[in-house]
Fold this sequence. Notes:
Elements (H helix, E strand, L loop, with lengths): L1 H18 L6 H12 L5 H18 L1 H5 L5 H23 L1 H7 L3 H21 L13 H10 L10 H11 L4 H28 L8 H31 L5 H19 L1
Amino acid sequence: MYNMEMIKMGILAIIQGITELLPISSSGHLILLGEYFNISITTLILSTFHLGTTLAIILFFREKLFKNLFTKEKLLFYIKILVASIPAGIVGFLFEELISERLRATWIIAVSLIVWGIVMILMEQKKKDINGKNLEAISWKQSLSIGISQTLALIPGTSRSGITTITGMLVGLDKYTALEYSFILGIPVLLGSSMYGILKEILMVGEPLTSTILSVSIIKITVMAILPLLIGYIALILLKKFQKKNWLTCFGMYRIVLGILILLLV
């Protein structure tokens, strides 16, 4: 029984590694698979998985994040990222209970998948790709617009990378630059919310915190984070290879088909 539980968790971790970094909604996939596997997708599970994929993003973009670290341009880049992350952080913190209790309904996930899938297809058809832009050259207006759009991703089924890529295209970025900025912009929110969720679960009020409980929790978290990290890193490599293709249309079609199947099954 325990082995079967670990296999299911392993599958969920692999799905997280793939879907978190593609515009198809990781939370939507995890919640739906959790129902199928009869596993409750707790805050600890989501936070640990997100920690793994966030580390994958940091590892993949290490050169863009840490090259010329102590220059004025890099400092301004970091400030833009942090400021643009504030709206999603505030909304996520204030409405954490509402999101976890009310917005994880299956029909909400299905409708979100379909609606944003249609938007992705329309965006790729109407918006001609322009030349790539240096991430540090992205303006305050563009950065804040993308950052504010992250709040919509708190609705399961939306996809943070999807909605921020769409917004980036609307404010004048090519789709792959928008996607890259989306990943880096997500680091503060994903890292902060992951650590908050993990510590909140480990240090639950009223639960005795012995050294044994703490060590088991840390081991569990480490194991659950490694798979999303590895799979997520591979997903980023593959996504970069397809940056010139019509990948938004492909992912949009996938979202629509998945959303319709969910509604039919429900």
